[in-house]
């Protein structure tokens, strides 16, 4: 999740020119290229048609109207609403990463984006709407972090690596993580369907990991969602303790790995997994041939 630095103009406009600006009038006062004639009759005589076609300034009044109309149209072009909302969310993310969750207010985000506070209210409705936009981004990032990789074909390794990346995401996105599992919204906040979908997608990744291991006979059968919630509680607790400074920095990674081993060992079907490394991923027992027995 990258640091947002986009800015939004107060009018949301792109392009356009200055009011009253018109096209170039040519090299002379009326657009002609030569000095005016001293012959009175020649000055009043209608000009002869040119073989090269009409001159550019043959109808200066008509062109002026066209130019002003074009400029008015250009000034009326506005940035699409979705782009403005994205830019404001980028500004909120910048405030979040620089100053922490408590600093994300409508006024702070408006100042960051260079707009009036009403511009934020018009897009998000309230501070809760603004916070929700950041929560959605946070859960999108978490989902991407814990999702399986192509090289992780073994379901045991998949769960293990997912657990390691969970911690990596939390530590590399501390402000997002604190916001995701904090309590900065109002008590009457009603999450949108989009937020419910994004948060649910992150949890579903873990449910799928657990279900796959149960189907493979590696984990004790049960309700996959319930077990996944237990796993999440354990890893979140370990991460929260580390982020709170309650685990010595030089012991934090090893301690977290032992938590992962404890989780898998406690849920595994007896005899289906082995744990040769107290801080490493579990493996499967090697099959013994009849000659070895």
Summary of the model, kept short:
By secondary structure, the protein is an all-alpha fold. The protein contains eleven helices and no strands.
Oligomer: single chain
Number of helix segments?
A: 11
Radius of gyration: 33 Å
Determine the CATH topology of the domain at 135-267: Tetracycline Repressor, domain 2
The CATH architecture of the domain at 135-267 comes to: Orthogonal Bundle
Kindly name the structural category.
Answer: mainly alpha
Distance between the termini: 54 Å
Strand content: under 5%
List low-pLDDT spans.
1-63, 72-77, 288-293
Say how many strands there are.
0
> Any idea of the CATH class of the domain at 135-267?
Mainly Alpha
Q: How does this model look, in words?
A:
The protein has helices at residues 40-44, 60-76, 81-99, 106-113, 117-124, 127-146, 155-172, 174-180, 193-215, 224-243, 252-267. It is mostly helical. Among the domains are: 78-125, Arc Repressor Mutant, subunit A (Orthogonal Bundle); 135-267, Tetracycline Repressor, domain 2. The longest helix has 23 residues, at 193-215. The radius of gyration is 33 Å and the shape is elongated. Residues 1-63, 72-77 and 288-293 have low confidence and may be disordered.
List keywords for this structure.
293 residues; mainly alpha; Arc Repressor Mutant, subunit A; Tetracycline Repressor, domain 2; 55% helix; elongated; disordered N terminus; disordered C terminus
């Amino acid at each position: 999740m990258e640091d947002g630095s986009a800015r939004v103009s107060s009018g949301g406009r792109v392009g356009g020119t200055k009011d009253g600006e018109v096209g170039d009038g040519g090299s002379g006062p009326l657009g002609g290229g030569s000095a005016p004639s001293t012959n009175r009759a020649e000055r009043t005589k209608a000009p002869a048609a040119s073989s090269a076609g009409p001159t550019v300034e043959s109808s200066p009044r008509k062109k002026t109207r066209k130019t002003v109309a074009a400029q008015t149209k250009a000034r009326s072009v506005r940035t699409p609403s979705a782009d403005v909302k994205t830019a404001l969310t980028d500004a909120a993310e910048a405030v979040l990463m620089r100053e922490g969750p408590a600093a994300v207010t409508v006024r702070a985000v408006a100042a960051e984006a260079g707009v009036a506070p009403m511009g934020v209210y018009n897009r998000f409705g309230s501070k809760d709407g603004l916070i929700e936009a950041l929560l959605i981004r946070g859960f999108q990032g978490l989902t991407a972090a814990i999702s399986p990789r192509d090289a992780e074909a073994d379901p045991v390794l998949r769960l293990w690596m997912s657990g390691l990346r969970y911690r990596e995401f939390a530590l590399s996105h501390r402000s997002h993580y604190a916001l995701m599992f904090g309590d900065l919204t109002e008590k009457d906040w009603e999450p949108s369907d989009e937020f419910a979908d994004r948060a649910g997608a992150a949890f579903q990744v873990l449910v799928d990991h657990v279900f796959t291991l149960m189907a493979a006979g590696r984990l004790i059968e049960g309700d996959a969602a319930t077990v996944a919630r237990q796993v999440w509680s354990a890893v979140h607790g370990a991460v929260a303790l580390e982020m709170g400074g309650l685990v010595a920095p030089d012991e934090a990674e090893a301690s977290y790995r032992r938590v992962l081993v404890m989780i898998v060992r406690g849920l595994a079907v007896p005899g289906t997994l082995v744990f040769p490394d107290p801080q490493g991923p579990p493996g499967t027992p090697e099959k013994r041939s009849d000659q070895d027995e």
